[in-house]
Design brief:
- There is one protein chain.
- This protein is of the alpha+beta class.
- It has two domains: about 140 residues, no CATH class; about 350 residues, Fucose-specific lectin (Neuraminidase).
- About 10% of the residues lie in helices and about 30% in strands.
- The protein is built from four helices and 27 strands.
- A hairpin with a 2-residue loop joins strand 25 and strand 26.
- It starts with about 60 loop residues before the first helix and ends with a strand.
- This is Fucose-specific lectin.
């Protein structure tokens, strides 16, 4: 914004009286001056101010300090010549006038410099903010500090990778971003999608992605809390309406009867077709969402059951697939639950684990070393990737990312399902104290655009994790042996 500077110049008004019109000053004609003889000292007559004009009286002792010669008599050194005589020069008045003019000029220069500097700094800040927004480095205003995060992704028939990232703004609304990484281009373009519903401040967020065939892909559903009830917003641009809201907390026909309410600070986790949460009873429950072949919803498709898991109140929850094949994921034993035990340790539990043993001939390790405990309600994320050894066996390696006491995320992972190992990647350090974390892989499906199964991919660099650092949303990739920070996601 331009600022106008008020004029600071002071005009100097001339005296209303000319020198020869000044009352109180007598100019003596030259022929009336006394004769000066060589032997006499020169005499100067100073005119006297008449008493009837006191306002024009000249105070010589104050304004014109006298200088004396060697004889001790006054010395006049700088007369000012006029047409009719000489007058002493008022040096104090001249000095004062110079100070006024000089001071005014300095004030004007300082004001002009300040305004110019302010405009330059304002433009520079505006340009920096614009560049930061483009580069994704600006501190965002639309993301809630410590907002819960959730993310999903898939590979479309062209080989391009599309991702969706959800978070909550300071006003409680759910916001979402979409990125599309064109095949062969490593830099994805992010865009903001329309804002969704208002939710409870600090709500947990859990998003799933459903794929089937070609016509209705992809379909995402984001689950969140409103007054201790679980709601789901299903989004599919190929459906009408494109966004459908649903209360997921009640009306059950099987398993648990009646409605349920989420516990204090309860978390949500989802991996299609499963949703898990912790109701007020403290035990973890599972909601199963069986969509139609066209991915449409139907009455009575949701079923709920208790998993019989006693967990820390308000524990973070994660769902991780135990197979790279979606058909097996959707079957009993197809996923595991990561949660925090009452003693603040981490646990991994596979419902119907006997099915896993029957399928793979081995059991997933469910026990973490007891000496490792974490902060209460420590943020966590989990994901699985196909093993590189033999894709046909559908086995996976599992990774659990847990917030430690040192403002960093540590990674626990399995290799060959034998035991849990730990690492501390530099890319996951120096996170905000209240930061959540979300990780995602590319979703599998039992029927892709070519009528084939699309399996869960190995760790080929397409795994993504998101968390907050300095209020910014940081994106990190995992390629099997290395974690790489990709930069900040622009909050648009």
């Amino acid at each position: 914004m331009a600022h106008s500077t008020p004029s600071m110049q002071h005009s100097v008004q001339p005296s209303p009286h000319a020198l020869d019109d000044q009352p109180g000053l007598e100019v003596v004609p030259y022929n009336h001056l006394p004769e000066v003889r060589p032997e006499e000292e020169p005499k100067f007559y100073l005119p006297q101010a008449p008493s009837q004009h006191p306002e024009h009286k000249i105070h010589l002792a104050e304004d014109f300090p006298q200088v004396v010669n060697e004889s001790g008599k006054p010395e006049v050194t700088s007369p000012a010549t006029t047409e009719k005589g000489t007058l002493p020069v008022n040096k104090s008045h001249k000095r004062r006038k110079c100070w006024i003019i000089g001071g005014t000029a300095c004030v004007v220069v300082v004001i002009v410099l300040c305004v110019t500097l302010g405009v330059v700094l304002s433009l520079k800040a505006r340009n920096n903010a614009s560049n930061d927004a483009v580069n994704g480095t600006s501190k965002p205003e639309t993301i809630r500090s410590g907002s819960k995060l959730s993310a999903v992704g898939w590979r479309n028939p062209n080989g391009d990778v599309e991702r969706f990232l959800y978070y909550q703004d300071p006003q409680g609304q759910i916001r979402r971003l979409r990125s599309l990484a064109i095949k062969g281009n490593s830099t994805p373009a992010w865009e903001a999608l329309p804002v969704l519903d208002q939710a409870t401040n600090g709500t947990s967020l859990a998003v799933t992605i459903a794929l089937h065939g070609t016509e209705y892909n992809p379909q995402t559903t984001i689950y969140y809390e409103v007054d201790k009830k679980v709601f789901g917003a299903t989004i599919n641009e190929a459906s009408q309406p494109a966004i459908q809201l649903e209360d997921v907390s009640g009306g059950w026909n099987g398993g648990l009867s009646g409605d349920f309410a989420m516990g204090n600070g309860a978390d949500l986790a989802a991996y299609w077709p499963y949703i898990i949460t912790q109701p007020e009873s403290g035990h973890i429950i599972e909601v199963r969402d069986m969509l139609q072949s066209d991915l449409s919803t139907s009455t009575g498709r949701l079923t709920v059951r208790s998993l019989g898991i006693s967990a820390y109140e308000g524990t973070s929850l994660c769902i991780v697939p135990t197979s790279s094949n979606f058909t097996k994921i959707a079957a009993p034993g197809g996923y595991g639950v990561v949660y925090q035990k009452p003693n603040q340790g981490i646990a991994f539990h596979v419902p119907d684990n006997e099915t896993i043993v029957g399928l793979y001939g081995e059991q997933l390790p469910e026990t973490f070393p007891e000496q490792f405990v974490f902060a209460p309600q420590a943020p966590m994320a989990a994901f699985a990737v196909a093993r590189n050894s033999n894709v046909d066996d559908n086995l996976v390696n599992i990774y659990i990312v847990v917030k430690s006491y040192s403002s960093s995320f540590g990674v626990w992972f399995t290799e060959n399902l034998s035991s849990w190992m730990e690492e501390s990647p530099d890319a996951l350090k120096d996170v905000d104290e209240d930061s959540d974390i979300a990780c995602s892989t590319l979703a599998p499906t039992d029927l892709d655009s070519e009528g084939k199964e699309a399996l869960l991919e190995p760790a080929n660099g397409e795994v993504r994790c998101y968390f907050q650092r300095g209020g910014r949303l940081v994106e990190v990739s995992f390629g099997g042996s290395m974690w790489t920070e990709l930069g900040a996601v622009p909050i648009l």
